[in-house]
């Protein structure tokens, strides 16, 4: 009778190891999911409940009113005007910020000695609190001795009558100037970082083939950074759409409603009139508008990034 050797197989741990990894994965992901629920899902549900109910600051969700709040908001000319004003403002400051940011980034890339100093100075507007930025530019536009008034008087122009923040036409552009000053450095630094990833050999080869100046930028530089520029524009647009602090500090929405943005309207309705239902409805409508405005730029960003 032949002797057969029996092999003793070790106990397989293949079933335990995936379960252990799954438990560790859930443990590490749990704080992120909790943060999303607390900071995202709960406010969204609160806004939805408030938009379809009769709610005040002290007594939320008193009665179910259906779409009544939304109908009131959509019929309110001031609210609709503030949404249009905010979208146009955001598009304007985003275009200016990205345009200036790209130009400054290109200049920084070519700067050899002063580049590091300039990059450090560019961080100053970014680290300045928005309240300080608003106060600073409010002083700049002060018709009674502000920087603008002083410069105009220095060149012989009577500046006492020039008060941008008191003008229905210039109030919002003046806020936009402060906004551009604060956020253009972010655009510059992001585009500059993208420029540093370019292969110098490609540019040198293009230069040898006769590409110089704008043609070099159009054919070599722009295709390399177009995706980054589109992404930065998308980020800048989202930041500009929610502008509130500069409006609050510099003009309080005035004169009249000339510089009233949607975020400021929501603040007034919720915290001054205590009408949480209508404020929630405005927020919901504005969220839909923001989504519709940003979707084309998100699609463009995705397309340019993957090309």
Blueprint (SSEs and pairs):
Blueprint lengths: L15 H36 L1 E2 L8 E2 L3 H7 L2 H34 L4 H13 L2 H11 L6 H8 L16 H26 L3 H9 L4 H29 L3 H6 L11 H10 L4 H31 L1
Antiparallel strand pairs: 1-2
Helix pairs in contact: 1-12, 2-12, 3-7, 3-9, 4-7, 5-7, 7-9, 9-12, 11-12
Pfam family, one: BPD_transp_1
Keywords: Cell membrane, Membrane, Sugar transport, Transmembrane, Transmembrane helix, Transport
Membrane topology: Multi-pass membrane protein
Description:
The chain has a two-stranded antiparallel ribbon with strand order 1-2. With 307 residues, it is an all-alpha fold. Helix content is 72%, strand content 1%. Helix 2 packs across helix 12, helix 7 packs across helix 9 (213-241) and helix 9 (213-241) packs antiparallel against helix 12. The model has no long low-confidence stretch (mean pLDDT 85). The protein has helices at 16-51, 68-74, 77-110, 115-127, 130-140, 147-154, 171-196, 200-208, 213-241, 245-250, 262-271, 276-306; strands at 53-54, 63-64. The chain has 2 domains: 22-64, no CATH class; 71-306, MetI-like (MetI-like fold), CATH 1.10.3720.10. It contains 12 helices and 2 strands; from the N terminus they run αββααααααααααα.
